[in-house]
Write a structure and sequence with these properties.
The complex is a heterodimer. By secondary structure, chain A is mainly alpha-helical. Chain A has 13 helices and 4 strands. Chain A has a domain at 27-244. Chain A has helices spanning 6-21, 28-51, 62-75, 84-106, 111-131, 162-185, 187-204, 209-235, 245-258, 264-283, 287-301, 307-314, 321-326; strands at residues 141-142, 149-151, 154-157, 237-238. In chain A, a hairpin with a 2-residue loop joins strand 2 and strand 3. The longest helix of chain A is centred in the C-terminal third of the chain and has 27 residues, at 209-235. Helices cover 36% and strands 24% of the residues of chain B. In chain B, strands 6-7-8-3-9-10 form a 6-stranded mixed beta sheet, with helices on both faces. Chain B has a 4-stranded antiparallel beta sheet with strand order 2-1-4-5. Chain B starts with 5 loop residues before the first strand and ends in an 8-residue tail after the last helix. The chains are: A mainly alpha, B alpha/beta. Chain A binds chain B through residues 182-183, 185-191, 194, 197-198, 200-209, 215, 320, 322-323, 326-329, and chain B through 52, 54, 73-75, 78-79, 84, 86, 90-96, 98-99, 102-104, 106-109, 111-120, 122, 125, 142-143, 145, 161, 165. The structure holds adenosine-5'-triphosphate (ATP) and magnesium ion.
Amino acid sequence: MTPLPKTLQATFLASALAIALFPLANSPFYIELVTKIMIMAIFAMSLDLLVGYTGLVSFGHAAYFGIAAYAVVLISPKYEAASLWLTLPASVLIAAASAFVIGLFVLRTKGIYFIMVTLAFAQMVYFLFHDTGLGGGSDGTYLNFKPEAKLAGYTLFDLGNTRHFYYFVFALMLLVYLFLRRLLQSPLGRAFIGIKVNEHRMWSLGYPVLRYKLASFTIAGGLGGLAGYLAACQFGFVNPEILSWHQSGNVLLMVILGGMGTLYGPIAGAFAFVMMQEYFSALTKHWQLLMGGLIVLVVLFFPGGLASLADRFKTRGVKKPVVAEAKHG
Amino acid sequence: MAEALLSAAGATRHFGGLAAVNNVSIELQRGQLHAVLGPNGAGKSTLINLLSGDLPLSAGTIRYKGRDISALSMDRRSRMGVGRSYQKTNIFPSFTAFENCRLAAQSRDARPFNIFANALHNRAVSAAAERALEQAGLAGRGEIVAATLSHGEQRQLEIAMVLATDPDVLLLDEPLAGMGAEESARMVELLRKLAADHAVMLVEHDMDAVFAVADRITVMANGQVLESGLPEQIRASAAVKQVYLGEDEERHV
Ligand SMILES: Nc1ncnc2c1ncn2[C@@H]1O[C@H](COP(=O)(O)OP(=O)(O)OP(=O)(O)O)[C@@H](O)[C@H]1O
Ligand SMILES: [Mg+2]
């Protein structure tokens, strides 16, 4: 993987700095909004591993987000706070394990069938929570106490504190980004990209492609779960809507809007998407129509998403992001 | 006679009513270059697909090192040592030539799931990739994105990728088609060298090349083996002359 171009690195540092300083000057409302966006950015990056780097267009990624969100609520005791160190890994593992099991089924299909069958499984999970008492049915259920981050009796930070939680999510977003960059430089990540570009030749060269796809699907499920865990902590409440197909569709739009196969694109996509949502919904009742139209325009005129804007500044030659990712450098 | 490394016995493949490969038996031995000739549509590529596992058999058996591998998937066969190239260039167009070969060599990596290793730091894999590029005549072209290589170079890359997997058996589907004269000659030289310690099956329309390097020749027509033997026998065969050599040599892509 080549290092990111200079202009992009600069944009990156500037954005990181802006995000880091943001809470100093803003009201809780905006701090919480950006926290929510960063959670969605983690969710979008996890989906980008599938869509942008393994060639697996999942339309049911909300399932893992939702499973982890329900997991933290269900494994936390009712009348006292659970430990962050326990519930976070547990919820992520439960989401990853679910992705592994579902992956065993869905990864046997391809193309449009894959899209449909990932959706179908996500709907099953949706109805599991919607129609049974497991998580309070269609009304959802509360996370009465936010998990505690204690070390040797000391509380390191407080997830209930808006600023603390903001920086916790920020750190995790950076961590997930760095983790995925690292992963994509590893032999495993290179194989994922190979599968996206030419699956048949990967089989032919001796790769057990199904196992690699399952690895990608499981990792993406776990990271999507991380986002779900954080969402449950932020709102202190879960209901089946967080694993509905709207949620799966929205995160897919964030990835496409931002530019798939770039990792930083989906972060930008999450910001753009949620901010448009806020802006347009305050503007008019028909905001979804407006927003849909705008997204269509972006996709039409910038097929590489927002990430391709950076490329356009630099060169006139159109290069697909994945090319740059896969070049040996 | 030495035992065959890879062999087909009664290999058959139907596409609907068409028997693309019909009861074909062939033996590939280490140290031998076995050429397969035949007019367009004779079933040569399909035979390779059956040997490599790209396609399942309708009937018959494939054996490798004495073991029945008929039911094994193509990735298993590849890892066992059966390598193949494609008639229609089948590369990773958006990757550099080096990365194409590196990924090929990486398929032999013992620890593929180590997510904290940097793929480029595996010296053995990178060295195998560089060696394969050089063997195929692409030394110094590693940094070029494959899609922007010339057509001939892409054909060379196709071969380099197979070589990078370090196979025992090479199934090459018209490797010379689309290559320039000079590169063709180089490649024929390489094939001759490879045949010394590999089993090579060469599907090729270029007669001069075939008769220059083949130790054995099998001629196919309509999915069946028409004739199989030493090059002199094939040259002398009346049946072959009539079906294949006698025809105006129809070139095709
Ligand atoms: N996937 C497929 N589905 C249906 N028919 C096929 C398929 N692959 C090959 N065939 C048919 O099988 C026959 C043999 O094809 P094959 O590609 O093996 O011939 P070939 O000897 O390699 O020819 P060429 O010299 O043109 O490459 C042809 O009639 C072809 O149309
Ligand atoms: Mg053919």
